[in-house]
Amino acid sequence: PFCSCSRRKMSLKSERRGIHVDQSELLCKKGCGYYGNPAWQGFCSKCWREEYHKARQKQIQEDWELAERLQREEEEAYASSQSSQGAQSLTFSKFEEKKTNEKTRKVTTVKKFFTASSRAGAKKAEIQEAKAPSPSIHRQASIETDRVSKEFIEFIRTYQKPGQDLYKQCKLFLDTMSHKRDLSIEEQSECAQDFYQNVADRLQTRWKVPPEKVEKAMDEVEKYIMTRQYKYVFCPETTDDEKKDLAVQKRIRALHWVTPQMLCVPVSEEIPEVSDMVVKAITDIIEMDSKRVPRDKLACITKCSKHIFNAIKITKNEPASADDFLPTLIYIVLKGNPPRLQSNIQYITRFCNPSRLMTGEDGYYFTNLCCAVAFIEKLDAQSLNLSQEDFDRFMTGQTSPKKQESDSFSPDVCLGVKQMCKSLDLLSQLNERQERIVSEAKKLEKDLIDWTDGITKEVEDIVEKYPLEIKPKSQALAAIDSENVENDKLPPPLQPQVYAG
């Protein structure tokens, strides 16, 4: 059996001095047959561990029972306070005091069993580990931030001394930015751009790092610092980015009726392969909002653009041109309505590595996306080759563009769908006719009112220019045969004369 060397030496020394030592006193107190150790209160190492774990489990169980009992007492006190208004419930201070006293009593009991001299070896290690502060308590970064930090540390190890200097520069920049939260977003953007330039120059001039490695290092630097700064610099409250996002989303929802034919999009979604490409492009442009690093957001725009080029190529059986790409990108943005579109564009513009935006396909595709958003914001009837009346009706939802004619459906489409489309077309035509009749009737009514007002005004002008003078009536002439003859100068009336014959 296992024995303690110190216990053996003590027994031999005692026998040499003539002191009789009972060997039974050297054995473990538990009676397992092994030798005990004074440092473990006379227990062997195995029995001491068992006793320690038993006491620890007992303490844990008692703590659980104490917590449950205190919770029940608190609930009963709360119930009694609700039932009788005069009853007094246990306050939080009393609860904490009672709990502290109970825990102190339990700890004292355990200390009596395991004295200070017995806490050696594994016990000391466990106590030190328990007293050591847990890094998760003070850590505020997310899981993604921790992962990016580990990847950055693994990356800079391959650069040796330049990597150490790079890490110091990044830490210094993050500490500096933490004290510049009050600055405007434009000033923080300038700080980030200056940092990118200084780091690149430092790697090239001081450490003589090759250009391809410098580019790779700058990508990792951007990924590290922007992942940690994302929640502070993306769509900050001091800007109107959120207001612009809502305006763009509202504008895109109002333009839901825009068809590919109106934009002259050379893409036929009837082809299954092209339809899949369109869906993938929409997915990529929407996924941009879930990324934190500007380079990753640009990668989503690039993947979306490549899917668009493939869709155009399959439809036209020839390589796509820039004139075909931009209208299709506008159609994808209208159909996908990406979340926080303006905030993502502003974030990329402010904090992306300038060398990536000014050169390469990422910068080209990002420029086209900015042009597409600007076109959507200023889109009008002339841009879609529509009349202003039709454009206004489509925007207000009074009507919508004509649907697909029933004759163009495939033979597999059921008759109900065809009949429904015919009915919808007929209703749309009747609605247009009714609107036209109402418009013409209102125009006729306005013309009649204008004509009446014009005639009335002309008559008033003539009357005003040539006023009507009414003269008094002249005295009536007396009749010749009237008895009331006032004029005596008339000759007497003729008398008939009879001639003898």
Automatic annotation (TrEMBL):
The protein's name: Rab5 GDP/GTP exchange factor
Residue spans of biased composition, Low complexity class: 78-93
Location of region: Disordered: 75-94, 124-143, 482-501
Sequence intervals crossing the membrane: none
Domain VPS9: 242-385
Predominant subcellular localization, coarse grouping: cytoplasm
GO biological process per UniProt: endocytosis; protein transport
Cellular component, GO annotation: cytosol; early endosome; endocytic vesicle; recycling endosome
Gene from which the chain derives: Rabgef1
Keyword Protein transport: yes
